[in-house]
Amino acid sequence: MFQVRIHGRGGQGVVSAAEMLSVAAFEEGKHSQAVPSFGSERMGAPVVAYVRIDDKEIELREPVLEPNLLIIQDPTLFSAIDVFSGLRKDGYLLVNTTKSMEELGVDEAAEKLPAGHVAAVPATELAMRHLKRPTPNTVLLGAFTAMSDVVRIDSVFKAIERKFPGKIGDMNIAAAQAAYDAAIAD
Amino acid sequence: MLKQVEGSHAVAEAVALCRPEVISAYPITPQTHIVEDLGTMVKAGGIENCQFMLVESEFGALSACIGSSAAGARSYTATSSQGMLFMMEAVYNASGMGLPIVMTVGNRAIGAPINIWNDWGDSMSARDSGWLQLFAETNQEAVDVHIQAFKLAEELSMPVMVCMDGFILTHAYARIDIPNQAQVDEFLPPFQPRQVLDPAAPLSMGAMVGPEAFTEVRYLAHHKQLEALELIPKQAAEFEAIFGRDSGGLVKSYEAEDAETVVVTMGSVIGTMKEVLTGMREDGISIGGLTIRSFRPFPREALREALKHAKRVIVFEKSLAVGMGGIVAMNLRMALQDFPIRVHSAIGGLGGRPITRVNLRRMFEKGIQDQLEEPHFHDINMDVVNREIEREQVERRSGAIAENILHDVGVVAAAKAI
How confident is the model at residue B230 (pLDDT cuts 50, 70, 90)? Predict the structure, then answer.
């Protein structure tokens, strides 16, 4: 089972990111579960969402305590909560930032992970360029598909299209593609 | 057809397939997406002959269903938590009158303290009302049980609530097989009411009944629930024959057939428990699980049959009768009272407290040693509790308990990730 924990703040599309990742896995014939975990729903409040992907039915209902993949959509959360809790030694870390892990003060956690498993993605900037909105979620999903085989980029595109038909979907796909290309280049 | 959808959406699709004629809607977390999705479907012309009514409150929502069901229309609504309380008079009215309304309950705790997360407080508040109460373990089962619920309600002429854990199921995306219209039409015939308001054949519905007849009327509601004990498995078998899935029924065993210790629960938590139970069995412990799918009617005989070989039962429930203890535990103890079985009562997950494999395993291990307190409050922080008790002992104006505890655990705890 591959487990994902996505951290962000209300309004950044954390819950949609989890939904789209689960749909991408579904498109590849896998079982997938996506669950949000929020406090009072308001913009800016910390939000966590969990995704599980497996080849068989997923019955586990506990929070994701040992993620294989941690996506941080908002680096201001580092000082607010222990986002790294339980991150597996062979796990992946994806952070929405223009800074380096060192500048963010999280290089210690990042260094524990295998090479190629850590990425700092300027997702908000890419989103502003392609979507004219600072929603980093689809960008981060695009970047992740370049880091591993858990889901393919075209599955993520299908998930985006399903969630955002028409022009908005196209813009999100372009943003995700741009992130993928940038991550591959790294 | 397989779809990756949110539980609420899957339920909306299932309800739509049942050809409801009146849907009354009032939003409340965590069921809102169900009625919103149904509204979207109706607006798009996706449900024939269906009137979608926005009402002013939950009391309005169920009252509208009472009216429409009395007029012969297949009627549906959904609620949770405070919404259930607000419609409580109508809840008893619907069952007292024997109207086959189907209602989804997105299980959520009841305040105070205000809490939007999952536990069974809302359903439990209506457990004596006469409504049938069916608990779904997965979103697939929620879909399947809603379809069965309409048939059950109309056959008995009694209302049915389909209970599904709020957020855990309602807001979870999962791979779900949504049936097609032909299958549902084969299983669920058009509504043929036992009683209907019709000027051509006038009758009184909801008549006042004095001491001379109240007992008999109330008994018949009880009798119908006893009939349901036969009907529920029968319809689950009919469902399986058409849809190919074993969903619903009275109870379900997870390798409990020959287990010395059986953990009994309801709803989605069995999913997390299964892995723990399998692990313990691999370690040589004789333990299994059992879910109660029909809480009302309480499947006394089915439980006696399923548990008669066990030495010990651990009931795990997300409900508490304040001043008494576990509700499911009480019901089960009553059913098993002449059996030489030790029944432990564990209460957990209240107000959405996460239930993990690790903390379950710890609890089960204490249980098999018969070392659980009576009742056992799962994952409770007694240091926090004791500090509040001390505050109250030291000072008269000790303040509001909820606020004191939030300060104690750190207010940000509510916003913490895990």
Answer: very high
Global confidence as pTM: 0.96
3-class DSSP state for residue B85? helix
Can you give the residue range of the structural domain that contains B408? 382-415
CA-to-CA distance for A66 and A60, rounded, in angstroms?
A: 13
Query: Are residue B410 and residue B261 in the same domain, yes or no?
Result: no
The CATH number of whichever domain residue B212 belongs to comes to: 3.40.50.970
A73: DSSP letter: S
CA distances from B85 to B82, B90, B378 (A): 5, 10, 26
Contact A139, A3 (CB under 8 A): no
Architecture of the domain delimited by A2-185: 3-Layer(aba) Sandwich (3.40)
Chain B residues close to A61, C-beta within 8 Å: 168, 268-269, 271-272, 355
Same domain, yes or no: B302 and B200: no
Chain A positions touching B416 (Cβ under 8 A) are 46, 81
Sign, Cα dihedral of A156, B415, B119, B288: positive
Output the CA torsion sign for B298, B299, B304, B306.
negative
Interface-testing mutation among A56, A62, A72, with chain B (most B C-beta atoms within 10 A): A62
Write the pLDDT tens digit of every residue in B252-279: 999 999 999 999 999 999 999 999 999 9
User: B357: how many CB neighbours lie within 10 A of its CB?
Assistant: 17
User: First and final CA of chain A: distance in angstroms?
Assistant: 27
B182 and B301 inside one domain:
no
